[in-house]
What we know:
Layout: E1 4-8, H1 14-23, E2 27-32, H2 38-43, E3 47-50, E4 52-53, E5 58-59, H3 62-67, E6 71-74, H4 88-99, E7 106-112, E8 121-123, H5 134-147, E9 153-159, E10 161-163, H6 170-173, E11 179-180, E12 188-190, H7 191-203, E13 209-213, H8 221-231, E14 239-241, E15 249-251
Parallel strand pairs: 1-2, 1-6, 2-3, 6-7, 7-9, 8-15, 9-13, 10-12, 11-14
Antiparallel strand pairs: 4-5
Amino acid sequence: MNKKIGILGCGWLGLPLAKSLIHEEHTVFGTTTSESKIEILQKANIVPFTIGLTEKGIEGQIDNFLAALDLLIINVPPKLRSAPQESFIKKMFHLYDKIKKTPLSRIIFISSTSVYGNIDGLITEDSPTRPNTESGRQLLAAENIFLNDGDLNSTIIRFGGLIGPSRHPVTHLAGKTDLSNGNDPVNLIHLNDCIGIITMAINGNWENKVINGVYPLHPTKETYYTTEAIKRGLLPPVYTKNLDKIGNKSIESKYLNVKIYPYNTSIVS
Length: 269
């Protein structure tokens, strides 16, 4: 069934997601913060809007954007590293207020496994959340804005480390030495699987649920990044220290497993 789907944030994940949904014959309304990217959205057959979230309010035609939608995908990272003084929570409250003034009741909120913090061992959706970064704390608070509203049908998807075209941590680790905790497991997810999981959420009955989006195979950092560096012709990173610390976690999902991962892309880009 064709749906009118809004993607707030058509960037590295949002743009290919939009193209995939259009291929599935949905109508996609997408946003960018830059006028220069409007043409990119138009060429992809996305109905484009220039919209910016700020602490003081929302810039752009947010009312027109929300009015037509059956479902909204909120794909806006906190970006607190580049703007640590800004409040992501305030931005989400402004968005929530706008949503509540429309008939829209179906939300998919893209979050991060950073909300779990440095918990040790196996992590599932039932595990406690103990974020140890400001970004993680604000993401968790933003999740709850939508989950705590019983009138909204909200799905929270917590993705692990994102990898895919032009994005892989090994490019930053290659050639580095004296790295620590090489025995820790990796918790990554490929772009293709992100798109597949979001598509499953759109078509499924995941009302008011939290879903962990992490590929369920967890090689050690040393094994994985050494292999990935060699594949790319890069110098492998060298791990020499294993610190006695909490945070040696493997993140898995009650709802997803190897057999049903949409593209079975694994964590190989």
